[in-house]
Amino acid sequence: MALKHITRIPRIPRNIQRVIEILTTLWRHGLGHIVTRLNVQEHLPMVARLATRGKVELLPSDDETFARRLTMALQELGPTFIKLGQILSTRPDFVPEPYLSEFRKLQDEVKPFPSDQAKEIVHKELRKEFDKVFAEFSDEPLASGSIAQTYAAKLLDGTPVVVKVRRPDIERKIDSDIDILRYLARHAERNWPELNPMLVVDEFEKAIHKELDFIVEASYTSKSHEFFEDIPDVKCPKVYWECTTPNILTMERITGIRPDDADELDRLGLDRKVLATNLGKAFVKQYVDFGLFHADPHPGNILIQADGTIALIDFGMTGHLTSDLLSEISTVLIAIAKQDLDILIDVYISISEGGAFVDARKLRPDILEMFDKYYGMPMARIDMAHVFNDSLRIARKHKLVLPRDLVMLMRSMVVVTSVGRMLDPEFNVAELIEPEARRLILRKASPQRAVKDLGLSLWHTSRILRSVPERLRSIVQKIESGTLTVAFKHQGLEGLISGLDRVSNRLSVSIILGSTIVGSSIALQAKILPIRGISAIGIVGYLVAAMLGLWLVWDVLRSGRY
Fold first, then answer.
1. Is pTM, for the whole model, over 0.85?
2. N or C, which terminus of the chain has less Cβ within 10 Å?
3. 268 shares a domain with 219
């Protein structure tokens, strides 16, 4: 019976044992009730199934121990689940505290793979002899993560570089685990729809595949390098495209001091207040003028050089501010300036996934409370972390999922503020955003923008109108030919159907079992085909009935529901 359910997962040979490993790990860390709530406990060993009969609600509001246990389980399950936790730690609209703080502790503590194997991957990817590309290449990695490990090297002209090499076979392993996550998410969708499990897996799959493809990271790094090339006091690594492929990334090696090393900064005589301001301006410029921004600006990804230049490294996590999203942000700013709460609510709903199902009347008091809390407060006194947390609290309460890039933008501002305050305790990125916010409002309200928006709207409308006759003709033709079909898809009934299927199977076995016992008893009484005075058919019938009875008892015990 367990095999029947496991076969619903693609790539069966690779996944059967992995499903058992994942569920057993959860049970071993005291999370067996998750398995029971998912209704997949039949994949657990017998002892574990017996121990998971009770049901406990997931995500209790104050259960820090639960969050700790879940984090330890993710750490033990390896790269895919470590990355899942790390990515979820950046989505506070999905995950409440204390899970966020625990997930942020997840580290890529992965044993390095052999450097000879890394060199072989580099050779295979570049299709050149190793000594014709690099003058030097370290024998030991600088760092080893769940996706890749990095090496210090020098090009033939002596340029110091960092080479990032993807782990062999890591994509296959991650894809296999994503298949299993989808399988578990389908079960969770029926039991915890409020957690948006399928949406979480979709978001994770997009994020992890972007991180697996080094061309994506190389492109973001290169664009950022070009953007800051003519801006003083800020730099990003140069990408060496001739030594970069989807599996390896070669970029300029930048050294410097972490912003949290105050003693070393003071020893060099650097003005930490100026450094904080330059850092803030660099990020505000990314948000407003570039549209592409570093979404993980923690102290390890920011280096300060001896001349005061700030270097931004590791663009594995990057956010985008499209013109549409910037336009919505501008609308919010205008609504705040005009104190128009209705526009603010409309934008909040329209940009959120699930907004179509939100009751605006219930949302209004929460938005009003947050508006009253911050409106009129001097920008220097506004704490971006509090604004961020209040916005996400409202989103979670009303089951709204904010755009990923908007969440990353807010988180980036919060982290930049935190790093800035390591340099200057009085730093606040909100003060630097204020003049740019005014510029955004003016840009939104400009006649040129209005004409452009009107032109785009007319173009889209004309396209829709042009396609209407063709679509109507197609529908009429299908009606006339009798080929018009209406697709109906039920949702949320899979568990009921599965349960009815299992009940009917047990009922059928019970009927057969009873019939076999009755028939065998009659055969024994009538002494049909006797052997030494006992009916052979009756004996065989009792043996078959015994096996059916044992199977039925085993199936009931294995299900954990009796």
1. no
2. C
3. no
191-232 pLDDT, tens digit per residue, is 676 667 888 888 888 888 888 999 999 999 999 999 999 888
Report residue 195 as tokens.
């957690």
Helices 323-338, 341-350: axis angle to 10 degrees equals: 160
Q: Are residues 294 and 154 in the same domain?
A: no
> What's the rounded Cα separation, in Å, for the pair 204 and 87?
7
Q: What is the CA radius of gyration of the chain?
A: 31
Domain total of the chain: 4
Q: Which amino acid appears at position 524 of this protein?
A: L
In-domain check, residue 498: no
296 and 220 inside one domain: no
Q: Which domain holds residue 427?
A: 260-446
d(CA 558, CA 460): 58
| Phi, psi dihedrals of residue 358, rounded to the nearest 5° | -90, 140
Q: Is residue 206 part of a domain?
A: yes
Tens-place pLDDT, residues 55-106: 444 444 446 778 888 888 888 888 888 888 888 887 776 777 778 778 888 8
Q: Contact, 19 vs 43, CB < 8 A?
A: yes
- Residue 513 backbone phi and psi in degrees, to 5: -60, -50
Q: Which of 142, 187, 197, 193 lies closest to 37 in space, CA to CA?
A: 187
Please state, in angstroms and rounded to a whole number, the distance separating the CA atoms of residues 559 and 562: 8
- Cα-flanking dihedrals φ and ψ of residue 427, to 5°? -70, 140
**What string of DSSP letters covers 151-211?**
EEEEETT--EEEEEEEPTTHHHHHHHHHHHHHHHHHHHHHH-GGG-HHHHHHHHHHHHHHH
Among 138-142, 285-289, 334-338, the least confident range: 334-338
Point out the domain boundary residue: 253, 270, 294.
253
Q: Which residue has the tokens 């057969």?
A: 512
- On whether both 421 and 344 belong to a single domain, the answer is yes
Distance, in Å, from the CA atom of 211 to the CA atom of 519, rounded to the nearest integer, reads: 65
- In a shared domain, residues 77 and 129: no
Regarding whether 277 and 417 lie in a shared domain, the answer is yes
Residues 310 and 430 in one domain: yes
Secondary element (H or E) of residue 217: helix 214-228
Residue 459 in any domain: the answer is no
In three-state secondary structure terms, 411 is: helix
Task: Please answer whether residues 548 and 509 qualify as being in contact, where contact means their C-beta atoms are separated by less than 8 angstroms.
Answer: yes
Domain closes at, from 216, 238, 253: 253
Q: Across 383-465, where does the E strand assignment appear?
A: none
Query: Strands 234-235 and 310-312: what pairing?
Result: parallel
Residue 156's contacts (CB-CB under 8 Å, 6 or more residues apart) are 132, 133, 134, 135
Residue 170 CB contacts under 8 Å (≥ 6 apart), including other chains: 79, 146, 147, 148, 212
